[in-house]
Specification:
The complex is a heterodimer of chains A (about 650) and B (about 150). With about 650 residues, chain A is of the alpha+beta class. In chain A, about 65% of the residues lie in helices and about 10% in strands. Among the domains of chain A are: about 160 residues, Up-down Bundle (Four Helix Bundle (Hemerythrin (Met), subunit A)); about 100 residues, no CATH class. In chain A, strands 2, 3, 4, 5, 6 and 7 form a 6-stranded antiparallel β-sheet that branches. The chains are: A alpha+beta (about 650), B mainly alpha (about 150).
């Protein structure tokens, strides 16, 4: 099986080179035969990488410990799910996954039908081929997944216990699907530059790809945050770790792109900017891999691995120089012919949104690399920790939230200050009672009040949009309110789906602000029968015990949770001591409600005296971050869902094509 | 959120026998500060953590602050901050005391002095640059025909 994998991987290198050459030559010469041959090579490449990936999965599942990768990331006692997850649990496997998904995507876009396909397709295929070539070359040289051990092992080292968590099997996968997805808009952006067709066609074609990639990236980030919260046991979900930052940076630039591409679609302006953003987003996804693999940066995800970091950095450099060189060369062509942006208009708020998102991406980048810069410049590595990121990002994020409200209310083209202000008036006054409620429930922190009132304001602006649309429909059609609301959203999915995503972001902001400012933390030593109170809860230690499980000994405690003198449940934090000597892992016990999360970690115990040290957190409204995540997925899906007209149009187009080329 | 931070100051061994060793360490270390803290009620533990969030205990992973790190050094630092707060020291005074004792590296973000200015100035410059581009863009108004889009 391993031999099949190794050979498929090697052949993929050949077929990728052929795919690039045939597509590029065909495009230059206008030769349909060569272009078609390039297309077939894309299909062949996808087949080869699929074979390679399936054989690696096969080796992992059957536990063939002759192979280094299998021995490094699995063990005999590992369940099937985690054996499959080991595919992306290590360096070589995750790079192979990257190549596999990329070549599958390439095959899909190569054969997809869309407006302007004739011109774009060979360039898109060649560009994606160039990216795939890099990964395939790395996999065939410095990072080989099918390397044999000098002597076959009896058992493997096993998967990192921290990764043995159901959420953790999905987090890297969604993140990768997001990262790799941005190759597609990147390839179309490059194709637009090469063909000279930088109008909005490439944006229309790639809109769904960008949104899907954005959705996966968002899910990957949220899953990661949730995993950190539930597994790492320090009571938080985000610590500005370099690898967390690596996923946030492309998310920020992609969010900017999703908004600015709408401006180009509607107004024909921001052509250069959109191409630049899509290049930047793609480069940041590769840079993220560099951060993870280089070992230069301290990280919880550090899989530091020799030369891989340098190779990725070189690739980032090449992509940057080549893409921006191309952009500079095509500059004259891209000069905007459209009317400039009016100061008060939806498009101006979108441009401002881009300024903020890109500034945030830069601030994250800067804070992440600064330790290395300071080391190089002064010889002393400075710590740039959460205080920096929180101080810089909080005001920018607040500005983004406010702008979300103004941008929603402002009209396209030239709006007037008075009209926009009039649209914002009701939401503005609705914010006051909301602020009164916040103060009444005891929120006094000025920054939190500001954040929450901004959120309330934007919620009101968004609700007004739904209200106006629904009432207008009711007047026109005589539908009842719920029917009108559902049909309104169904008919303008892109717009109202987008608003739902906005609401999701507002929920997330509320969760972050309130849990950040009003979280409580306690450390207590308890004997059985001891009571500790935190917030409105009392926790009674019932007792502690141990049990044996395959591969580990589990020490656990049981705490009775009471509120208003009523028992409401039992929390059972555990400590896992692995028999193979791996770092012990705490299993956090969480009682999550919309109001607050009770979060208990067992930090240590003395079995002889029956004393246990607990770390207890009360995190108000933290779960709103996850609720926001669910809504974000729903809103994006609504926004992505093709309309019935689009289906009809596609069918008609296919029919016409059949007529032309019978 | 380091792997090593998981086991707090009791990051010692392999099997549950660890519990004993853990307690020895624990008895010797200032752990259970909440207990030590029980007598003093003029400072809340939350205040200690708020202050500790600005510092980076030596030896802790770079992304964890004095408020989140679970290494021994972080426990020591929190207790030190607790004492200083009880003595009625202000945040500013605590900062001076800790910096003179441990050096600049105790700060979780560089102070805006010397080379550290750069880390703070660059994002501000980025926003300023972006905003000026924005204003140039919207000011360049021509009496043009309505845009085609």
């Amino acid at each position: 099986m391993g031999v099949l994998g190794r050979w498929s991987l090697l052949l993929s290198l050949v077929s990728i080179v052929y795919m690039i050459a045939a597509s590029a030559y065909g495009a230059r010469r206008g030769s349909r035969a060569w272009i078609a041959s390039g297309r077939r090579a894309a299909l062949a490449t996808a087949g080869l990488t699929t074979l390679a990936s399936l054989s690696l999965i096969g080796l992992l599942v059957t536990g063939d410990f002759r192979y280094e990768y299998v021995a490094n990331y699995t063990s005999r006692d590992l369940g099937l799910l985690y054996r499959i997850a080991a595919f992306w649990g290590g360096n070589q496997g995750s790079l192979l996954l990257w190549l596999w998904v990329l070549t599958l995507y390439t095959a899909v876009v190569t054969y997809a039908r869309y407006e302007g396909r004739e011109q774009f397709q060979p360039y898109v295929t060649a560009t994606l081929g160039a990216v795939a070539l890099f990964f395939s070359a790395v996999l065939n040289t410095v990072s080989q997944p099918f390397r044999l051990l000098p002597a076959a092992g009896v058992d493997g080292a096993g998967l990192n216990p921290l990764l043995q968590n159901p959420g953790m099997t999905i987090h890297p996968l969604t993140l990768y699907l997001g990262y790799i997805g941005f190759s597609i808009p990147f390839a179309y952006g490059i194709a637009a530059l090469l063909t000279g067709r930088a109008d909005a066609v490439w944006l229309r074609v790639t809109r769904r790809w960008s949104m899907v990639a954005w959705l996966f990236l968002s899910m990957g980030i949220l899953y990661g945050a949730r995993w950190a919260y539930e597994v790492l046991g320090w009571g938080g979900y985000w610590s500005w770790d370099p690898v967390e930052n690596a996923s946030l940076m492309p998310w920020l630039t992609a969010t900017a792109f999703i908004h600015s591409s709408i401006v180009q679609e509607r107004k024909g302006t921001l052509k250069v900017w959109n191409v630049a953003l899509v290049i930047l987003t793609f480069v940041l996804t590769i840079f993220g891999t560099f951060l993870t693999r280089s070992g230069i940066f301290w990280s919880v995800h550090a899989f530091s691995n020799g030369p891989l970091g340098a190779i990725f950095l070189a690739f980032v450099g090449i992509v940057l120089v080549a893409s921006f060189g191309l952009l500079a060369w095509r500059w004259p062509l891209l000069k905007s012919t459209a009317a400039p942006v009016a100061p008060v208009s939806k498009e101006s708020t979108f441009v401002l949104n881009n300024v903020l998102f890109v500034s945030m991406a830069f601030a994250v980048f800067w804070g992440t690399v600064f330790p290395v810069i300071s080391q190089a410049a002064t010889g002393r590595q400075m710590v740039v920790g959460p205080p920096f990121f929180n101080t810089v990002m909080a005001p920018l994020a607040m500005a983004v939230v406010l702008l979300m409200g103004i941008g929603t209310a402002a009209a396209w083209r030239r709006s007037s200050l008075r009209r926009t202000a009039a649209a914002l008036m009701t939401p503005f006054f609705l914010t006051f009672p909301a602020v009164a409620v916040f103060i009444a429930v005891g929120i006094r922190d000025v920054a939190v009040l500001a954040a929450l009132s901004s959120v309330a304001f934007v919620l009101a602006v968004t609700a007004r949009e739904f209200w106006l649309g629904t009432t207008a429909r009711m007047r026109l059609t005589g539908e009842t309110a719920p029917v009108a609301l559902i049909r309104l959203v169904a008919q303008q999915r892109r717009r109202y789906g987008g608003y739902l995503v906005h609401v999701a972001v507002l929920l997330i902001v509320m969760g972050i602000a309130v849990s950040g400012a009003y979280g409580i933390q306690k450390q207590v030593v308890m004997k059985p029968g001891d009571v500790v109170s935190i917030g409105p809860y009392q926790l009674v230690l019932l007792g502690s015990s141990t049990r044996e499980e395959p591969g580990r000994t589990v020490v656990y405690s049981q705490l009775l949770v009471q509120k208003n003198e009523r028992s409401i449940g039992i929390l059972q934090p555990e400590d896992w001591y692995f028999l193979n000597g791996a770092q012990p892992a705490a299993q956090v016990a969480i009682r999550s409600t919309p109001i607050d999360d009770l979060y208990v970690v067992m930090s240590g115990m003395d079995a002889t005296k029956g004393k246990v040290l607990f770390e207890i957190h009360l995190n108000p409204m933290l779960s709103w971050i996850w609720y926001g995540g669910y809504l974000l997925v729903a809103g994006t899906l609504i926004s992505l869902w093709p309309s019935r007209e689009a289906f009809r149009e596609a069918a008609a187009k296919a029919a016409r094509e059949v007529e032309v080329h019978p | 959120m380091s792997r090593s931070s998981l086991r707090g100051p009791f990051r010692t061994g392999r099997a549950p026998a660890v519990a004993l060793a853990a307690l020895l360490l624990w008895a010797a270390s200032p752990a259970g500060p909440e207990a030590a803290f029980a007598q003093q009620r003029n400072v809340t533990w939350q205040e200690v953590l708020d202050v500790a969030a600005e510092y980076h205990p030596p030896g802790c992973p770079p992304t964890l602050t004095g408020a989140t790190c679970q290494e021994r050094q972080a426990f020591d630092l929190r207790l030190e901050i607790l004492k200083l707060l009880e003595e009625g020291k202000s945040r500013q005074e605590i900062r001076q005391i800790l910096v003179s004792k441990y050096g600049q590296d105790i700060l979780a973000a560089p102070p805006p002095k010397g080379f550290g200015v750069l880390v703070w100035a660059a994002p501000v410059a980025a926003v300023a640059f972006g905003l000026s581009v924005f204003f140039l863009m919207v000011r360049r108004r021509r009496p043009s025909p309505p845009a085609g889009g």
